[in-house]
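Hello support,

Our group uses your service weekly, and this is the first time we've seen a run hang past the timeout. The protein is OmpA-like domain-containing protein. I'm not sure whether the cause is the sequence or the server load. Input pasted verbatim:
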Amino acid sequence: MKRTLISIFLPLLIFSYTRIGGGRGNFFVSDALTQGPGFLTLGVHTLSRMETTDSLYSDLLVALTYSPIEYLELSGSGGGIFRYYPWEDFASTWHDWNLKGKVVLPLIKVFKPGFLFGYNFPRDTVYDPRGLPVKKGLEYSGLVNLKFSDIMPSLPSLLLNLSRYQDNLDSSHTALGASLELLAKGLLFFGEYFKVGDTQRITPGVKFLSSSFSFDLGLSFLFLPENVRRYQLIAGFTYLTPFFRVYVPTGKIVGRVFSASTKQPIPATISFPENPKLKPITNDTVTGLFEAKKIPEGTIVVEVSSEGFYKEYQPITVKRDATVTQDFFLKPLKVTGILSGRVYDATTGRPLSARLSFPNTGLNPIFSDSATGAFKLPEVPTGPIEINVEKEGYFTYSLTATIRENEVSSIDVPLTPSLIRSIITGKVTDRKTGAPLAAEIIFEGAPTGPVKTDPQTGIYRQELPVGTYNATVKAEGYITQTLPVILEKDKVTEKNFSLVSVGMSITLKVLFDFNKATIKPESYRVLDEAAQILKDNPKISVEIQGHTDNIGSDAYNQKLSERRAQAVANYFIAQHGIDPKRLKAVGYGESRPIASNDTEEGRALNRRVEFVIIREEP
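Update from on-call engineer: The timeout came from a worker crash unrelated to the input. Re-ran successfully.
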């Protein structure tokens, strides 16, 4: 049980530092923890202030603190008081003497309470009225250490005190204290708030720490009644004596550090954030092996870090004179895989040396081997990656590969000789708005792989062997369109694609004879363009909607709109051979105006035919 408690305390108590008057703490606020079993410390502190430029008040206190066991701390202090005025002799006298005892319950994570009891022996001497408070007889305090570093080593600790005592006039006082402290390498930064009655103190300070010695420095701002402010300079040191120390049994931790993705050894630093007395060590860069010696018995948090990898924290239980083996697998900051494959002539199978580039990745281009055509690229970010393969005298081949974590993704790239070449270019847009689309075009049977449009302009350009291809155009949210294209030798072919989507409504500017359903000849071109949409997208069905203004009766307008919608459907069937099953003619009369019927312009807008895509057959 004793060894267990020692192991719990040891990571917490690495450095010894005392408060003014003894006991572990900062200047005016006590810590709920003790110095550690068997630790005897000597602390000396002085508080000085100048009333005017040539007058001085100073308190000097010397304290001894001893912890016979892990949860008990005893301390006592005494000292002197000094005063200097230019109009009188230098004055000095004894300070109060006091004895204290602290009981600690440190076994609760984060929340560590304690209780302090003390007895003060006052002297009938002259005190600095704005120095340390005068105490007489019994005092007692409740203490709490909220040690957030139990959750994460980099977090601070918060010390809280509530005390009761009597002064030399037998008046009772309540004191409140709080201190926030942050431990760094060899340093402890803290800020204190302390209040007794109408007097308040705010004291920032720093402690310079080593394994057996600490030096304290701070400036206390006093806020006194009637808005009087004074300042005190505080300095001191604590010495951890070699007497009465408890033997701490130790063990050893050995292991190796690997990359979690490649399972290969990596160079790393092994440190102990809750026990700064233990120096960080590094592992062997080739084997990944490390050995940490003289680790105190008990549970200790081990931190393993390596550049380019996430840190790992692992609590390890060390036993007396035993060796604990623990390997660490660090996750890389960027998860990667491996890309490999082969480039060859599509007609002869001969291996080729080609240039492989990876747009929008930041990866440098690589070349396949001229003898084997093989290539390999390690540490490729996971996910889809675009690849362009180029060689003079061959068509560029573009493809997309998927890289998986810690796996080898293999691809074979056949390049087609570009003896007879042609170029196709064009634009992919939204059929209704004309907006450019980010699309992918696949030329069936082409040796180049999919072609992507520029998402900002919708433009594409590709070099292909001459011939006839079925071009399939895909864009997210739109109906896939497949059209034939013919490429001729040494000629640039321009082919634009307009995509539609289910629910898209296109207003057709169709003119009819007055009060009739007879289509005027000048509207044939508009209807031919609409019919081309049906031909370019053979799997879609549409609703042809007829609409009128409000001139005439509702019944008349309803019938007129139905006859006009049917006239458009009949035109598609008779002139373009569209399957009637793909067409639905509906009249809505005057029920769906898109403008006011109070003006001629509004009525003209309401007299319309709409071409609505209602579904796509699977």
